[in-house]
Structures are given as C-alpha cells and as structure tokens.
Amino acid sequence: MSVISDQIKIITETLPDGVELVAVSKFHPVEALKEAYDAGQRIFGESRVQEISQKRLLMPDDVQWHFIGHLQTNKVRQLVPYVSLIHSVDSIKLLESINAESARIGKVVDVLLQLHVAQEETKFGFTCEDCVDLVDKGVLDRLPNVRVCGVMGMATNTDDMVKVREEFKSIKNVFDTLKQRYFADKPYFKEISMGMSDDFHIAMEEGSTLVRIGTTIFGSRGY
Ligand SMILES: *Cc1c(COP(=O)(O)O)cnc(C)c1O
Question: How far is residue 210's CA from residue 87's CA, in Å, rounded to a whole number?
Fold first, then answer.
C-alpha cells in the first residue's frame, strides 16, 4: 500500500460521523490523486481554476471537485459547470458573479461563506457582521442560483493551539448565528469547513463537518 492510501485510510477511520474529508490535492500530480481515488477518496480540493480544470479531465466522473482557493470573478465561468462546492466565497461581488454564471447554465451552485477570523491581514473573507448583513438585507434572496450551505474558515497559522481553538469556536458561532437567524428551516445549511493538516483534530472537536487536508495525505507541496 502506498503512503497516500495509508493516510486516506487512517484519516477516514478517525473521522466522526458527519465529518467528511476533502483531500487537498493542489500542486500534486494526477497520479497522486489517482492513488487517493483508488483508496476510496472522492472529494478533492483544489485552489486554482486552471489546475482543477486540467485534472478533472484525467480523473473519473464521480469525483466531487471542491474549490478552496481565492476565486477571481473572471474565472467563475470556467469553474461553475463542474464544481460541486465552492468553499471560498469571500465577497458579495463574487456571490453575484457565481449566481449569474449558474443562472446562465441553469444550475444552482453550492457555496460556503469564507469567514475572516485569523489574525493575518492577507486573509480574505466576511466578518460575522458582514454575514448577518448579507441575510438581513436580503442579498441572498436576490441570488437564487447560489445555495449557501454553510461557512468556511482558516485559523491563524500559529503553534498556539489555544488561539486556534478560539478561532474555530468563533467560526462555529457565526454558523450558529446564521443558522438561527436565517437558515433554521433549511437543512442544506449544515457545513462548517474548518481544519487542515495541523489542526483538524481541534477543528472536529469544535464542530467541523468538512476537514481540508493536504500535506498529511500527499506530503509537502513543491511550489
Ligand atoms: C492548502 C490548503 C489546505 C490544506 O492545507 P494542509 O496544511 O496541507 O493540510 C486547506 N485549506 C485551504 C484553504 C488551503 O489553501
């Protein structure tokens, strides 16, 4: 058995009920994805539209492609036809663009709202207030071709696991606030995408439903 398939099995076996693994395969060759696929993995996460567009042609049809990187509006048209979940929606402009493209091809695309909780200034995303505004002002009602299924967030890149845990708690808090305020009767609003190689155990303890794991499965990325 290869290291990749070993890791897929080890991680999958430790996931509690209700948590799914997104195998983050960005920057890794298709051969690596195929090994993961052969070990039973079906959800793959990629962060660049060009890369995902090429890889998907070389992989079986039942792969679910999740987009996790910063998405530019001019790449939306290319991505929307085949993507199954966009984790990283970080602006109203992007929501509108995804809605327009999805409407054009008669599709409803599932997305998550990316939250800004980490300390790093470069992180994109919505604050809790932005999200509440979004629903209170009826923005989502105007966008019937996007279906907001939950939230996504990244903790600060730090060894301070107390801080990481606090940030995961605040992501869960935003989820709960939105659920209560707007999505209480919408069963599809159920995803909390948080946790990467170094912190997914903590993320799961704090309520994650989608863990995005790259390095632990595929090794380090040669950028
Ligand atoms: C690259 C990436 C991951 C995977 O990170 P690892 O530390 O390799 O597990 C998860 N989420 C996002 C948004 C990423 O860009």
Answer: 10
Pull the structure tokens for residue 172: 């869960």
d(CA 45, CA 39): 16
Choosing among 3.40.50.1100, 3.40.50.10540, 3.20.20.10, 3.50.50.60, the CATH entry for 3-218 is: 3.20.20.10
Q: Which atom of ligand 1 is nearest to the CA of 213?
A: 9
pLDDT digits (tens, 9 = 90+) for 137-161: 999 999 999 999 999 999 999 999 9
24 lines ligand 1 (CB under 6 A): yes
Asked if residue 178 has its Cβ within 6 Å of ligand 1, the reply is no
Query: Which band of pLDDT confidence, cut at 50, 70 and 90, is reported for residue 189?
Result: very high
